[in-house]
Amino acid sequence: VQLQASGGGLVQPGGSLRLSCVASGFAFDRHEIAWFRQPPGKERESVSCISCRHGSPDYTDTVKGRFTISKDNTKNTVYLQMNNLKPEDTAVYYCAAAESGTRFIDINSSYRVYDYWGQGTQVTVSS
């Protein structure tokens, strides 16, 4: 089982980045896929999940209207398009997966309910 996150970098406030998470070794279409982030000195927090709101994507309030999660089943890849980035978005971003239907998951679920994790990709928003 492997999740490979990429796409992070240094961007100025107001800029954009697209993160990618490539999954392998498990049934991609039968798992909830989410993005978390961990700012410096803080706990890991949920950012977005692909189908955790009654089969639709959901987002934490601080990124609604700026971030968009999507997936390509043919590539076993989940994306996080991040627009209008702010300095407070600076964090290490992780993708995570949990088998669907085996537990309750929503946007507020702790990182502890997820089984599989990518290695993280650094996003720094600074002028």
Structure, described:
There is one protein chain. With 127 residues, the protein is mainly β. The protein is built from no helices and eleven strands. The protein has strands at 2-6, 9-11, 17-24, 31-38, 45-53, 56-59, 67-72, 77-82, 91-99, 116-117, 121-125. The strands form two sheets. Strands 2, 4, 5, 6, 9, 10 and 11 form a seven-stranded mixed β-sheet that branches. A four-stranded antiparallel β-sheet has the order 1-3-8-7, with no helix packed on it. It is globular. It starts with a strand and ends with a strand. 32% of the residues are buried.
Sequence-ordered SSE layout with sheet pairings:
Layout: E1 2-6, E2 9-11, E3 17-24, E4 31-38, E5 45-53, E6 56-59, E7 67-72, E8 77-82, E9 91-99, E10 116-117, E11 121-125
Parallel strand pairs: 2-11
Antiparallel strand pairs: 1-3, 3-8, 4-5, 4-9, 5-6, 7-8, 9-10, 9-11
Helix content: under 10%
Oligomeric grouping of the chains: single chain
Element pattern in H and E: EEEEEEEEEEE
Number of helices: 0
The global form is globular
Largest sheet: 7 strands, mixed
Structural class: mainly beta
How much of the sequence lies in strands comes to: over 45%
Radius of gyration, CA atoms, in whole angstroms? 13 Å
Question: What separation lies between the terminal Cα atoms?
Answer: 37 Å
Low-confidence stretches: none
Mean pLDDT: 95
Question: How many beta strands in the DSSP annotation?
Answer: 11
Short summary:
By secondary structure, the protein is an all-beta fold.
